[in-house]
Amino acid sequence: MAKDRFLAQGVTHTKRQRGAHGQKDQKNQKNQRSQKSRMRSHGSDGSESDGVGDISDLEHQYEDASDAVSSADEFLETPAEKRLRLAKDYIGRVQASTQMTGGIDAEQIDRDLIAERLTLDANERSGRWSRQIARNFAYTIDEPQITRVLRFGHALPPTCVALTPDARFVYSGGKDGALVKWDRVEGTKLHVFRGLKKKRPDHNVGHCDEILAVAVSSDGRFVASGGRDRRIHVWSVPEDRHLGVFHQHKDAVTGLAFRRNTNHLYSCSLDRMVKLWNIDELGYMDTLFGHQDGAVAIDALQREQAVTVGCRDKTVRLWKIADDAQLVFRAGAATDQHRITKALGSAPEIQSELNPRVVSSLNVHETTLRTLAGADAEFSEDCVDCVTMIDEETFVSGGDSGALCLWSVQKKKPVFIHHLSHGVVSTGSNDAPPRACWISAVAAVPFTDLFFSASSDGCIRMWQMRAGKTPGFDLVNVIAVNGFVNALSVRELVPEDPMSNTRDVVVAAAVGQEPRLGRWEKVSARNVVKVFTLRAVLPTAGQ
Question: Cα Rg for the chain, rounded, in angstroms?
Answer without folding.
Answer: 29
